[in-house]
Write a structure and sequence with these properties.
Elements: H1 4-11, H2 15-22, H3 30-42, H4 49-56, E1 61-66, H5 72-87, E2 91-96, H6 101-113, E3 118-121, H7 131-139, E4 143-147, E5 157-161, H8 163-177, E6 182-186, E7 188-189, E8 192-193, H9 195-206, E9 214-216, H10 228-236, E10 244-247, H11 250-262, E11 272-274, E12 291-293, H12 296-311, E13 324-327, E14 330-332
Parallel strand pairs: 1-2, 1-3, 3-4, 4-5, 5-13, 6-9, 6-10, 10-11
Antiparallel strand pairs: 7-8, 12-14
């Protein structure tokens, strides 16, 4: 296999022209690009990534930080990133946060040391990424892009589920079925509603519905310590009892359905319930869970595309302000929701 310099000699061009032609750079004429690419194929030329990195100052590597790679949502999001990154010739380094800020910060530091060009951050914890960390990333020319509910102490490009649309559709669907007392089960931060819970609260408030049926899971993913039976009993013995339950995400909804079976309760006869995520088990619960498809592959793809657009900007100092891209969810009506009996 020839070196870059040898391939340039064979083509009668400068080494930089070869590099650009192999990347389909439009600044190189189509005829020259075709000729160089044909020579590269003929001699089985493979570009030396280390050499390219030294020449361009880029590693063609992107980091992805996920709460856990084994959760269905994270796996689907990662699939979207890998598809786009592969097409663009990027390697992907994957790290887990374990839903903890300390782990996120350690992972980010490791990715900076690996000289990644950017990092896509879906951390899974309620604490924001500190401003100091954002400045450190940018100081090392690493482009951060936030994913879904990740919070930042500063402005960062962000691709996320449209939480406003999610809350609005969820509440309106249950209201159309006839429900007026709707509970929400999710996480709080120091007793405060955050993220999805805040949007659900506002949607109920806007429709002049009771907002007192908010219950804290007192557990973080993967919800090993969630006392689902006690939580469900607490909800259904309220006065008046809620006739519908919105769960923060599908695993909580599935655990409440399982607890209901133990308590001799049945959905949707005794209460309707819906979740978020459309995880692989959602159609398999009893009854099949009404949920929202959040299109995580699309979130991952758009996040990588946004990173790539930032990478190709000539002057970071004159770059456009941070963008926020909302991916609209889709309601999947199944058997766990019905008009109140």
């Amino acid at each position: 296999m020839p070196s870059l310099r040898k391939l340039a000699e064979l083509a009668g061009v400068a080494p930089s022209t070869v590099t650009r032609a192999l990347r389909d750079d439009p600044r190189i004429g189509a005829e020259t690009r075709t000729r160089i690419q044909a020579l590269a194929a003929q001699y089985h030329y493979l570009p030396n990534r280390l050499t390219q990195s030294l020449m361009t100052g880029r590693s063609q590597t992107i980091g992805v930080l996920l709460p856990s790679v084994v959760t269905p949502y994270s796996a689907r999001l990662l699939s979207g990133v890998l598809r786009q990154a592969g097409a663009a010739g990027f390697r992907v380094l994957i790290q887990e946060s374990g839903y903890q800020l300390a782990h996120s910060l350690a992972a980010i530091q490791m990715l900076i040391e690996q000289r990644v060009d950017g990092v896509l951050l879906d951390c899974g914890h309620l604490e924001p990424i500190p401003r100091k960390t954002i400045l450190e990333l940018r100081g090392h020319r690493v482009i951060p892009v936030g994913l879904d509910s990740t919070l930042f102490d500063g402005e960062v490009d962000h691709v996320h589920t449209d939480e406003l649309a999610l809350a609005t559709q969820a509440v309106d669907y249950l209201v159309q079925l006839g429900h007026r007392h709707i509970a929400f089960v999710g996480q709080t931060e120091h007793g405060r509603l955050v993220g999805r819970g805040r949007y659900i609260f506002k949607a109920l408030q806007k429709r002049l519905l009771p907002t007192r049926y908010f219950f804290d899971t007192r557990a973080k993913p993967p919800y090993d310590s969630l006392l689902s039976g006690e939580l469900l009993e607490q909800m259904l013995t309220a006065t008046p009892a809620p006739t519908a339950i919105i769960a923060w995400e599908d695993p909580i909804a599935a655990m409440l359905l399982k607890a209901a079976a133990r308590l001799g309760r049945h959905a949707p006869r005794d209460f309707s319930i819906l979740g978020f995520g459309n995880l692989s088990f959602s159609p398999l619960t009893t009854p099949a869970l009404t949920t929202f498809e959040q299109h995580p592959e699309q979130v991952g793809q758009q996040a990588f595309d946004l990173f790539l657009a930032r990478l190709e900007e000539d002057d970071p100092d004159t770059a456009a302000p941070p963008r926020s891209i909302a991916v609209r969810p889709t309601l999947l009506k199944r058997e766990s929701c019905a008009p109140p009996s």
